[in-house]
Specification:
The chain is mainly alpha-helical and 168 residues long. The protein is 57% helix and 9% strand. The protein has 8 helices and 2 strands. This is MarR family transcriptional regulator.
Length: 168
Amino acid sequence: MSVDVETCSDLIEQMPVLTVLKRELARSVPETLLPGLGALSVLSLEGPLRPSVLAERLSVDVSVASRQAAHLASLGLVERLPDPGDRRSHQLRITADGRARLESVRGALAEKLAQRLDKWEQRDAETLVRLLSCLRRTAEGTTAAPPAAPVPTTGALVGSIAAQGERA
């Protein structure tokens, strides 16, 4: 089973809408938080990480991840902990304030996106989430055959809005 070139061409034509939507949603994120939103998300999901691992997860240079971590630490949203495996290094961990701020921003983004999708059927949005998840896994190099039937989702389609500031 493979996808033909014409379908891929059609998909390429549709991809810019994701960037436009992402930019629109990013405008609603507080400017001081935007550069580190992706880092907060990763730390929330994965727990304490070395800056180099965080940079890898964000697909940015270590210097970018380090600047973001320093900024988030200055806001009290991330803390630095000694790395138990290497005394010369440290790990980054999201704080309770960071988790609360992340959830607040995610909720606001989800509300804004829900307003934009107000004419959509729930099942269509769930299908989009499922297919974008498959596309993400494919892009990340993991196997991603879509299930035959739509899989209901429990979360909102928020995604990583922070990419606007991640590569800075």
